[in-house]
Design goal:
This protein is α+β, with helices and mostly antiparallel strands. The protein has 24 helices and 15 strands.
């Protein structure tokens, strides 16, 4: 390309940019509100879809909804998922400010929508800050950058928390700090403190920023005094309300010590150990990741990042952190000052003295600078945020809709106010009640971050569960011993019987006789389809029962009607001989094949997860029972069914849509695959 053509292209580009700039100037506020409302509508729809799809499975939404539900009925901060006041988890009395909104419609979606609305409105506050310091046109760019920021998306989609509301109120506090409206500054400073205990760290360091900016005494002292007193007080109060005697999350810093004094002492006594911890790849990736969507520009104005200094150390001193913190609400307190710092970088580029060479370079190449900033914003939004995974999952609804409908049927079959214990999938949907418990604490046998014993209270009348959670438990809590045994004892001692079971979903009801069992030890067997196969040195497959073999060797499906909908179920019992004891936990894999090709497979826990193979005794005969749900999205035709034992290597991870999922890294077949026959779907 000739030099004249390049100059001509550059001039046309600048002209288009000027015309676009003029258009934005005329329609500034309209465009901003269109962006904000679009953000709120899109993520409200996404929240609704995720909630409907049972993807809020990390407990937090269920915990908060139960706290709000009880608080709205006058039982302030009560919840039962942890056996103490919620103030023993986090000192978030801001919950009382939000409760009037929750009273309109007591439902988890109200909380999710409130979170989205406050995040969206925070963009307008950023607009006010930017307009005051720079210009209307650049404020539009900042609003877009905020609403497209992947951390904002991650915060919004990862459960519900009170901490994200701090973004809105810290912005408000800073606006009145800059505008020198002292009364409003103090008011919103105090409101910000009520949001969560670690907001006090930001407030305290705001006093340091005031010193550097040579503000008056009245701007310096209140952040210092209020921040320090509040932080020290609530650390003690959370210990009181939890009954632990100390802040329960101090365990996150266990590598430094088990109490405040030992943590402080070890920090100064072992500087090399501290440096080694800080220098891990996980921490470095967190540091790189948090600045990446901002093009690292806030580092050019580091003094405006000072209010986040203590929160930064709070994150990197965690026992386990890293880039995972970028996908959840932990970054919320960084957001306001990353954008405020960015505002002052832009101010110096376009309206300042441009003393540094890099600032001067950005000014001379302002069109390209703004274009690159815009591209980086979009790129990080798509790569580091959940939008693309959300859209992919929404488009894949056919493969998940059957299970979603079934889960809703299970939820609707449980009485509304009855005390209940539940697994991860169901906690959020069932949390609008006075008493609900998480079954994973029974598996652990201990309270959260405590050695104190725990068992689910006697008032629990139902247990609703996804049996695959047992597989998840085995990998998350690999060091926990006796978890399955504790669940077995809970079921037997309180006479819980299966009220309904389809596939991996089961409802147990208290004091209920059950003709359906997940497993039986040393059963009396009269007729089984013998197919002795030695799968390993410890397990032999003896055969199966519940088949109806006709001349075409087809398996018999059963039509089950539940909550007004029909499901095709394949009920089968398998018989196993424990040849020797083993430390390995094997799972069952079901395969469906068409024309010799696997078109569907699913993992099921052995014996429903209640009696894992690592507990089988040599010489035992074990009958395991399954009610396999056949997929409803397959084309009509004939399919071959087979089973096999597998050993999994897996880990619990946060998915692209910010849900918890067991990621299977390796599946090792144990022995040969066992063909069962054919079915017509």
């Amino acid at each position: 390309m000739s030099e004249s053509k390049i100059i001509n292209w550059a001039n046309k580009t600048r002209l288009k940019f000027i015309n676009f700039s003029n258009f934005c100037t005329k329609n500034n506020l309209k465009i901003i509100w269109i962006l904000i409302i679009s953000f709120i509508l899109f993520f409200s729809l996404t929240n609704f879809w995720k909630y409907y799809s049972f993807e809020y499975n990390a407990l937090d939404l269920g915990i908060f909804n139960q706290v709000f539900y009880n608080t709205s009925h006058g039982r302030l901060f009560e919840f039962t998922i942890h056996p103490h006041s919620y103030l023993g988890d986090h000192f978030e009395i801001f919950i009382l400010f939000l409760t009037p909104f929750y009273l309109i419609f007591r439902h988890p979606l109200v909380l999710l929508f409130l979170q989205t609305i406050f995040l969206g409105l925070s963009a307008y506050l950023l607009y006010l800050i930017t307009k005051d310091k720079i210009s209307k046109n650049l404020s539009l760019l900042f609003v877009f950058a905020f609403l497209a920021n992947p951390f904002i998306h991650n915060i919004d989609l990862y459960e519900f928390h009170i901490l994200p509301f701090a973004i809105f109120f810290i912005f408000l506090t800073y606006i009145f700090y800059e505008r020198k409206k002292y009364g409003w500054f103090i008011l919103f400073l105090i409101i910000s403190l009520t949001i969560r205990e670690d907001v006090a760290l930001v407030v305290l360091m705001l006093g340091v920023l005031a010193i550097i900016q040579k503000k008056g005494f009245k701007w310096i002292l209140p952040p210092f005094v209020l921040g320090t007193i509040w932080f020290v007080a609530v650390m003690q109060l959370t210990g009181y309300f939890s009954g632990y005697g100390h802040y329960k999350y101090i365990l996150y810093y266990g590598w430094l010590g088990n109490d405040y004094l030992s943590i402080i002492n070890n920090f100064f006594a072992h500087p090399l150990g501290v440096l080694k911890h800080i220098s891990t790849w996980h921490n470095l990736s967190f540091i790189i990741g948090i600045f990446l969507p901002f093009g690292f520009l806030p580092l050019l104005k580091p003094k405006y990042l000072i209010p986040t200094a203590l929160v930064f150390f709070q994150i990197i001193f965690l026992t386990q952190t890293g880039e995972g913190a970028l996908n959840i609400h932990y970054v919320a307190l960084f957001i306001p000052f990353l954008f405020i710092s960015l505002v002052f970088v832009f101010k110096e580029i376009f309206y300042g003295g441009r003393k540094s060479k890099i600032i001067n370079f950005f000014y001379k190449e302002s069109v390209y600078f703004l274009t690159i900033f815009f591209v980086v914003t979009i790129y990080c939004s798509l790569v580091m945020g959940p939008v693309i995974p959300v859209l992919k999952n929404m488009l894949n609804y056919k493969k998940t809709n059957q299970e979603i409908v079934l889960k809703n049927a299970f939820v609707n079959s449980v009485p509304r106010e009855t005390p209940i214990a539940a697994g991860y999938d169901f906690i959020s949907k069932l949390s609008s009640r006075k008493n609900i418990y998480s079954l994973h604490y029974e598996y652990l046998g201990k309270k959260q971050y405590s050695d104190e014993k725990y068992t689910i209270p006697n008032d629990a009348e139902y247990i609703i569960f996804n049996l695959n959670d047992f597989i998840l438990y085995k990998h998350i809590y690999a060091k926990t011993k006796g978890g399955a045994e504790r669940i077995r004892k809970l079921l037997s001692s309180r006479n819980f019987g299966i009220q309904e079971i389809i596939d991996n979903f089961v409802i147990w009801k208290k004091n209920t006789p059950s003709s359906r069992l997940l497993y039986t030890l040393n059963p009396t067997v009269t007729t089984i389809n013998k197919n002795n196969v030695k799968l390993s040195e410890s397990i032999e497959f003896l055969g199966c029962q519940g088949l109806n073999n006709n001349k075409n060797n087809e398996l018999q499906l059963t039509d089950v009607k539940f909550n007004g909908k029909n499901y095709k179920i394949l009920p089968l019992s398998f018989f196993w001989q424990a040849l020797n004891e083993t430390n390995d936990n094997y799972e069952l894999r079901l395969n469906l094949k068409s024309n010799g090709r696997i078109v569907y497979n699913k993992i099921y826990p052995m014996a429903g997860g209640l009696y894992p193979t690592s507990e089988w005794k040599a010489g035992e005969l074990i009958q395991t029972n399954y009610w396999f749900l056949m997929p409803d999205y397959f084309k009509k035709g004939q399919y071959q069914i087979s089973i096999g034992l597998v050993k999994l290597k897996a880990e619990a991870l946060l998915t692209g849509i910010r849900s918890i999922e067991l990621k299977i890294n390796n599946v090792k077949a144990v022995g040969q695959e066992i063909n069962l026959g054919q079915i017509n779907l």
